[in-house]
Amino acid sequence: MVAGGLLGGPAPSRTPFLRSSSPRPPLPSPSSSPSVAARSIPRPSVVPMAASHCSSGTSPRGADASSPSSSPNLVDPPSLLVFSGGTAFNGVVEELKKLTTRVAHVLPVSDDGGSTAEIVRVLGGPAVGDIRSRCLRLSDESTSEALAVRKLLGHRLSLDAAEAKSEWYQIVEGEHCLWDGVSRPYGETIRAFLAFSNIRYFNALMNLSVSAMAGRHIGNFFFAGARIFFQSLDAAVFLFSRVSDIPTESLVLPVISTNDRLTLGCELWDGSIIRGQNEISHPTNGCMEPINKDCASSLRLPSGIKRVFYMSSEGCNLLHEVFPAANPTVLEQLKKVDCVVYAMGSLFTSICPSLVLQGIGEIIASRSIPKVLLLNGSHDRETTGLSASGFVTAITDALNRTYGDPGKSLKNTPSDYINSLLVPRDGQILIDVQCLATQGIFHVVPVGSIHDPKVGTIFEPKSLMKALADLICQQAHKKFTMDVSFRAF
């Protein structure tokens, strides 16, 4: 029997969900969801990180704008929009929550590797692994039940096929120890969608393969069940966000809101085409085991990446390019946040897929706010040989859609999209300040770093958040001073 009590059959004899001593609040109704080259170049310099730390926001409120001596009264924490993937930026999310929870996390839905790959292959739809991963990083940890829910939804099944199958059925039946500490309302909500996903998944497979569950994330099955049940990715994200109890002011947004499968392609400078995000960044030769994301684990590409684009699921060349629309909520958030951040990570497969969509470049270029690139500390398969200015050029070309349809391309400059770089100390990427100056970027801030044995140099999270807060505060103070001067004049 599979989750009988939830699908009309007899309820299991064992009560699988323990009532927590501190029950979580009821799930809110959907109506409470948040609204979904220069002629004369100044001498470039790498500026030191500001010594002071401004932990509050960027909106000068309560100050007397008519008095030049007034200083900004920074009340609200800053609001950010972060373009990122599902791995590199996760390491600093905990520190970011201490700076501000007013963050829109924008993630791609084109990942076709790892635990997500088989679910997408069998059930279709967009890849949600990165969204699931970010929701769990943002999830509440303040109670024993919150920790239990986080542990359950973050659990990966055994790589051994037989063990994974047994473990999966214990979870769906509500008999696994992972349910300990999860109260009945939350447990039955989660278990219902796992059971629904289980039925749809194995009906689609027709003949059960004992390897079908090996290495899969429980959270991905919950997500898939919710998306299919509601026929809405947005509804699934809303439910997962509420069940994992992320901060109410935080948004986790798919850059494309769709129920369809999305395939990422890339065009290399030698004219060849690679189909599939995983084949671009971490090819596995068909292996279904978890992806090895060590910076030196993959062979370098035969040629540099010219651009990334979306293609039909069955496509294999440029004739099959498609042009999905950006999530309207992402465009709304871009119009009102205090800062845009391009996070570290896989440049062409994690960041650029969110930038090539129509409307993204137009809005970013129109905003006079901090636009910050968090530079990688090491090269990977996608960026071998790129300097800091090369990263800037790649982001600019993506936002301008330079190599796509000429009728849809933009002509904005690099400084329209990026005005500051935060750089990890002792990183592998060349910081070519003269070239950055030619691009109109003069604010380069070195930030404390640590060494990760798998990926090399990475930002030290606390140092990164301090540098980002200082940068936002400096920009707010500058804008406030200019406003006061203008009004006084």
What do you see in this structure?
The structure is a single chain. With 489 residues, this protein is of the alpha/beta class. The protein folds into two domains: 41-113 and 253-488, Rossmann fold (3-Layer(aba) Sandwich); 140-245. It is built from 16 helices and 13 strands. It has helices spanning 93-99, 114-123, 129-138, 144-153, 161-172, 184-205, 218-230, 233-243, 277-281, 328-334, 347-355, 360-366, 388-400, 414-417, 433-438, 461-488, and strands spanning 80-83, 103-107, 251-254, 263-268, 273-275, 305-311, 321-322, 339-342, 371-374, 420-424, 444-447, 449-452, 456-459. The strands form three sheets. The chain has a seven-stranded parallel β-sheet, sandwiched between helices. A four-stranded antiparallel β-sheet has the order 5-4-6-7. The chain has a two-stranded antiparallel ribbon with strand order 12-13. Strand 12 (449-452) and strand 13 (456-459) form a beta hairpin. Helix 7 (218-230) packs across helix 8 and helix 11 (347-355) runs parallel beside helix 13 (388-400). The longest helix is centred in the C-terminal third of the chain and has 28 residues, at 461-488. The radius of gyration is 23 Å and the shape is globular. 46% of the residues are buried.
